[in-house]
DNA sequence: TTGTTTCATTGCAATATTACGATAATAAGG
DNA sequence: CCTTATTATCGTAATATTGCAATGAAACAA
């Protein structure tokens, strides 16, 4: 039905899945990578860089902002976006923990 | 239009986004975490453990398999699933690289 | 004020995802 | 062969996501 049954999972599982979802689109990956390289940028730059319409970029920026991954500061008529270091560190830690939890099992099936 | 314009992004960006998407659902996170703990399991166990219908679990397992994150071995009438260590290591490396690329910028906007 | 620039929001169409009942498919035991 | 057990697939309904044209909102300059 397109509706995730989030009530049957733990908060941690829902949160982790939400974090993945925030980065589960090439445009948002591209925005993040551009922000890492340029340190900061405005909407217009991304429109030129990525080749998506301005409302589309704006929407992706909104999702990244909702996820806490970026922050936007109004500067005159434009908005300066950059990575939010605190949330970034949280993502890094949580993702790292997930992958570190698996210790290459020697007794798999088969 | 619900259709991602993947042709305007790099292969790496599309691939990384696809990797995130494979884990962007709490059920798939739960399955992976269960596999880490139990080392291996069959569909029926997950149906009991997660409380989703059998076809739903089967579908999520299929997506994880398509992503290369898990492998399934037929054992009699059931199928034994476990984590695929090789792809797991790739994910770990790629995710790690993404997050390591950002070096806490001191000169953000604002 | 009027115009310009820049970004956000709205509204919509097209496609994707999620979930499950019903039904196949396969293997094992009689 | 028939039955049971287990998983995969099909079909479908409900919801979510993606993308953009049109429009709105805010800051600035003249």
Describe the structure in your own words.
The structure is a homodimer of 110-residue chains. The first copy, chain A, has 110 residues and is of the alpha+beta class. In chain A, helix 3 crosses helix 4. The longest helix of chain A is centred in the last third of the chain and has 16 residues. Chain A is elongated. The mean pLDDT of chain A is 95. The interface between A and B is large, with 54 and 54 residues. Chain A binds a DNA duplex (30 and 30 nucleotides) through helix 4.
Radius of gyration of chain A: 17 Å
The tally of domains of chain A stands at: 1
- Provide a count of the helices of chain A: 5
Distance between the termini of chain A: 35 Å
The percent range for strand residues of chain A is: 5-15%
How many β-strand stretches of chain A?
A: 3
Assign the structural class of chain A, choosing from mainly alpha, mainly beta, alpha/beta, alpha+beta, or little secondary structure.
Answer: alpha+beta
Q: Give the mean pLDDT of chain A.
A: 95
State the assembly state of the protein chains: homodimer
Low-confidence stretches of chain A: none
Order of helices and strands of chain A: HHEHHEEH
CATH topology of chain A: Arc Repressor Mutant, subunit A
Reading off the top of the CATH hierarchy, the class of chain A is best stated as: Mainly Alpha
Helix content of chain A: 55-70%
What is the spatial order of strands in the main beta sheet of chain A?
1-3-2
Pair with the most extensive interface?
A-B, 54 and 54 residues
Can you tell me the CATH architecture of chain A?
Orthogonal Bundle
Please summarize the sheet with the most strands of chain A: 3 strands, antiparallel
CATH homologous superfamily label of chain A? Winged helix-like DNA-binding domain superfamily/Winged helix DNA-binding domain
Shape of chain A: elongated
């Amino acid at each position: 039905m397109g509706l995730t049954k989030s009530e049957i999972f733990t908060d941690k599982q829902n949160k982790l899945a939400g974090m993945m979802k925030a980065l589960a689109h090439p445009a948002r990956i591209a925005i993040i990578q551009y922000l890492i390289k340029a340190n900061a940028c405005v909407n217009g730059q991304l429109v030129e860089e990525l080749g998506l319409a301005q409302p589309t970029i704006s929407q992706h920026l909104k999702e990244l902002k909702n996820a806490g991954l970026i922050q936007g500061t109004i500067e005159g008529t434009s908005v300066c976006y950059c990575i939010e270091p605190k949330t970034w560190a949280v993502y890094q830690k949580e993702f790292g923990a997930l992958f570190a939890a698996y210790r290459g099992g020697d007794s798999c099936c088969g």
